Inverse folding.
């Protein structure tokens, strides 16, 4: 007798009930229907294909663009005793041949692969021989040119429908509006699909946006008020270390996470946070995918996210246990110009793409009409330096060439140069006194990278050499000496990216084929950034309504708990005289700085500042040398 879905859920995942829509989706899959599932972050998308695949004989093919997530899911399945494998990059032809044989004859239940793999003739031939029971497309929005993170290679998934036309398909995403849904259904050729769309409304999650001058102080205040599990998202790796250290110095238990950490260290830090040994995880957006921690109380963004899709997904990691939770964005006057500079001013134009593609071919001396499937190791910094390219613009251009399958970038091939100082300042500075020629290079490193005493840190040797006004070769010699003398640990790498040219070199002709994609993606990025800005600046409409409307939901009611709703439901505006009286009454007891007053007196920061200014002008209070306020006697 065939096991029921609930039996599989209990046996392998130790759950006794399904989340909303999971059972309905699974039943539709088992009835061999094509299915489109739109579930919010935390909705349990993976089980929607894993459970029915376990019930049926044969193997499920899972297509995903996220290599790290595929590996995590395969590892998790294997730990449950379920046979699964992932065709990641860097596999030799003979190993690939053996792995595909295992899928045919080895009773494997899941084969995870990237859409690029579907271009390989060997893979296509073996798939036709496999007992496939289901095609699962994760992050399905990537197949739509209107979707967040569009990847043209995702269109290769159509090949699967042709190779095994009798097998039904399930497409899953947590990020799609109506236009994207229609596009995905068309591109995947889903036949009369059953569409399951769970409302994105989170009645327990309060969306907050605060304009503050001192973000760090506000962050500390929130985390002390709600001393429960939290995620703090920041823009770069350096900030993860700095803010984590700052929180620990204030008595708030924190750790940090970013993509540059070794796998073992990532796992340890993640485990410390998952088991509540650390209250706060300070992280870049490399953290969170596939994480299911129900008791996250607050998710705080210290910088503006690049899109509402990104923000909604990251914010949605709070409050999955159904209890009241908070998603907070801290902003100031610098954030919007910074967001535009980071994500719009560095968008590569068609001419930029043509230039960088041509320079890349010249760099490796690839003749016209050749280079297909040739692989090279690229020192990215040296490449940019050779042709005087803007690093961010060049990187974005290479990423676009990667996503459009002109080239393939492998960032797992090798890491950049890493160093860590092994000695304390008490030893380091006397050492520099004894070696004055090393002083400027060492100080340049210390001023450029934070946290370099606490952990191994990736460094840009070319950039540091230029700052220190010496050649890169000389700078590397200095690093080697510091290593020999026991001052630093050193992992020296000459390359940070492996590049494979997928198409032969045809210069402008190659790029002309993807011009519509370049222009459409640039337009989409502009729209996403501007939509994010509109969300942040709109203090009149309920934040929850703004987000849900963006994802196509209608007939919405105000949440009553977001920053906009709370402001509207608050008491009438307080007069300046009331604030003055409260401040004078408090200062009559003791001196206080503005932060203490803000905590002790229940008024807004703007009101407090206006009142303090007025009281100073009237001579009723004065500022001490300790930068506190006191009554004038």
């Amino acid at each position: 007798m065939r096991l029921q879905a609930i039996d599989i859920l209990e046996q392998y995942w130790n759950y006794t009930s399904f989340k909303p829509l999971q059972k309905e989706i699974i039943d539709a899959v088992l009835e061999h229907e094509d299915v489109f599932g739109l579930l919010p972050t935390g909705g349990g998308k993976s089980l929607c294909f894993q459970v029915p695949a376990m019930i049926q004989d044969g193997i499920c093919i899972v297509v995903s663009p996220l290599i790290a997530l595929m590996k995590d899911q395969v590892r998790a399945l294997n730990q449950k005793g379920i046979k699964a494998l992932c065709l990641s990059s860097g596999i030799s032809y003979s190993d690939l041949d053996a792995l595909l044989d295992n899928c045919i004859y080895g009773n494997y239940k899941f084969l995870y692969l990237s859409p690029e793999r579907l271009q390989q003739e060997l893979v296509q031939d073996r798939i036709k021989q496999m007992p496939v029971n289901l095609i699962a497309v994760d992050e399905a929005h990537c197949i739509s040119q209107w979707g967040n993170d569009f990847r043209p290679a995702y269109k290769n998934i159509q090949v699967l429908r042709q190779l095994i036309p009798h097998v039904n398909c399930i497409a899953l995403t947590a990020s799609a509006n109506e236009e994207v849904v229609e596009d995905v259904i068309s591109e995947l050729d889903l036949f009369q699909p059953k569409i399951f769309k769970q409302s994105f409304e989170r009645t327990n999650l309060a969306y907050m946006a605060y304009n503050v001058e001192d973000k760090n102080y506000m962050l500390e205040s929130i985390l002390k008020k709600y001393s429960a599990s939290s995620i703090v998202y920041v823009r770069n790796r350096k900030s993860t270390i700095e803010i984590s250290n700052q929180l620990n110095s204030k008595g708030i238990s924190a750790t940090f996470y970013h993509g540059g950490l070794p796998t073992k260290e990532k796992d340890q830090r993640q485990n410390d946070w998952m088991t509540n040994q650390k209250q706060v995880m300070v992280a870049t957006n490399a953290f969170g995918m596939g994480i299911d921690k129900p008791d996250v109380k607050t998710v705080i963004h210290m910088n503006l996210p690049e899109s509402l899709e990104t923000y909604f997904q990251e914010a949605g990691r709070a409050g999955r246990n159904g209890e009241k939770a908070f998603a907070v964005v801290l902003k100031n006057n610098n954030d919007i110009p910074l967001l535009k500079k980071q994500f719009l001013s560095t968008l590569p134009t068609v001419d930029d793409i043509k230039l960088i593609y041509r320079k890349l071919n010249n760099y490796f001396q690839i003749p016209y009409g050749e280079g297909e499937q040739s692989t090279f190791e690229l020192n990215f910094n040296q490449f940019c330096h050779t042709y005087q390219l803007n690093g961010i613009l060049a990187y974005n251009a290479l990423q676009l060439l990667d996503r459009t399958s002109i080239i393939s970038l492998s960032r797992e091939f090798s890491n950049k140069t890493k160093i860590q100082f092994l000695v304390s300042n008490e030893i380091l500075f006397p050492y520099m006194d004894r070696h004055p020629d090393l002083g400027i290079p060492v100080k340049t490193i210390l001023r450029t990278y934070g946290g370099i005493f606490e952990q191994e840190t990736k460094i840009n040797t070319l950039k540091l050499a230029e700052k220190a006004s010496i050649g890169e070769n000389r700078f590397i010699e200095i690093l080697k000496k510091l290593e020999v003398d026991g001052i630093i640990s050193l992992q020296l790498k000459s390359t940070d990216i492996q590049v494979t040219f997928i198409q032969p070199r045809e210069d402008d002709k190659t790029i002309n084929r993807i011009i519509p994609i370049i222009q459409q993606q640039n337009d989409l990025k502009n729209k996403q950034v501007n939509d994010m800005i509109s969300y942040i600046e709109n203090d009149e409409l309920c934040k929850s309504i703004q987000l849900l409307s963006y994802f196509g939901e209608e007939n919405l009611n105000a949440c009553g708990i977001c920053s906009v709703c709370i402001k509207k439901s608050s008491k009438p505006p307080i007069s300046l005289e009331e604030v003055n009286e409260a401040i004078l009454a408090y200062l009559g007891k003791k001196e206080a700085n503005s932060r203490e007053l803000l905590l002790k007196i229940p008024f807004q920061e703007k009101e407090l500042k206006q009142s303090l200014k007025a009281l100073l002008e009237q001579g009723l209070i004065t500022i001490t040398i300790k930068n506190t306020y006191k009554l004038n006697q």
Remarks:
- The mean pLDDT is 87.
- The CA atoms of residues 336 and 533 lie 7 Å apart.
- The first helix runs from residue 5 to 13.
- Residues 418-491 form one domain.
